[in-house]
Amino acid sequence: MERGQYQQSSSRPYPWPGKRLTRWGPETSNSPTSTYGFSTALPGSMTSEQQDAYVTALRIEEITQKLRANDDELLISVENGGRAPRSPSPASQYDSSGCRTNTRVRRYRERPERERHGLVQAAVETIPGYRPPRDYHQPVTTKIQDRVYLPVADFPHVNFIGQILGPRGSSLKAMNSETGATIIIRGRGSVKEGRRRGYQAAQEREQEPLHCLVTANSQQKVSHAKSLIWDVIENAISMPDELNSRKNAQLRGLAIANGTFRDDEGRSREPGGFIEHRV
């Protein structure tokens, strides 16, 4: 036998015809110009929408490949082979049959599954003819959540809560109805001093920075609600109170609700200060 050659055995044929056996594994499908079957060399003629759709589909495939790994491989990849520090484990939770529902593997899988679900929802709504991965199953009661933090530290003089809520919560109800999402104000200052609840979870939430918690069943609804909240924040910061149409409309609605509204439209003020009705 010549040096550098291996004798073929009937019980162990060559795995690749025309190639000799080596100690190295087969070549992967990834290359400097390809990742998970997606080319990384994008043409310059692609629009920004096409680029976003391409990146979304690539990220979905990347998460799908990670979720297809077995539990041991997942733990190794997440914990970096045991070298990465582990976060403290939460209290154990069990279902009605006594099986633990928040194991370490289950917690590691939940985050990428939630991310993939949001990306798949966005891809279905924005990419024509998109089909989710074959092993993707849409959760029955999945809720997507996101937060918008209110810059109260930078603008302490602005009443963000009042402009989001409106008179008796009417502005917030209108935003929820328009977007199909649920917007809840939480964090420090979201609950009045005399109305604090005694539950530990509620007290812990009040220690967080003031924010709007947005919950919906699709990423599009969450994004729509976040854009409306940011519009309120930007208008409250950039516009004086007398030019803020949202705040003026809220004051008008509050006066109508309290029965103290006086409609001066259609009246002209005389030079002497008297108001005369127009005929």
UniProtKB/TrEMBL annotation:
Region called Disordered, residue ranges: 1-47, 79-101
SMART domains assigned: KH (SM00322)
InterPro entries: BBP-like, KH_1_KHDC4/BBP-like, KH_dom, KH_dom_type_1_sf, SF1-HH, SF1-HH_sf
Highest taxon of the lineage: Eukaryota
SUPFAM superfamilies: Eukaryotic type KH-domain (KH-domain type I)
Broad class of where this protein is predominantly found: nucleus
Domain K Homology per the UniProt entry, residue ranges: 142-234
UniProt GO MF annotations: mRNA binding; pre-mRNA branch point binding; zinc ion binding
Compositionally skewed regions (Polar residues) per UniProt: 1-12, 27-38, 89-101
Record-level GO BP terms: mRNA splicing, via spliceosome; regulation of mRNA splicing, via spliceosome
Cellular component terms per the entry's GO annotation: spliceosomal complex
Keywords: Metal-binding, mRNA processing, mRNA splicing, Nucleus, RNA-binding, Spliceosome, Zinc, Zinc-finger
Subcellular location: Nucleus
Range of residues in the leader sequence: none
UniProt similarity note: Belongs to the BBP/SF1 family.
Task performed by this protein: Necessary for the splicing of pre-mRNA. Has a role in the recognition of the branch site (5'-UACUAAC-3'), the pyrimidine tract and the 3'-splice site at the 3'-end of introns.
Protein name: Branchpoint-bridging protein
Protein source organism: Cephalotrichum gorgonifer
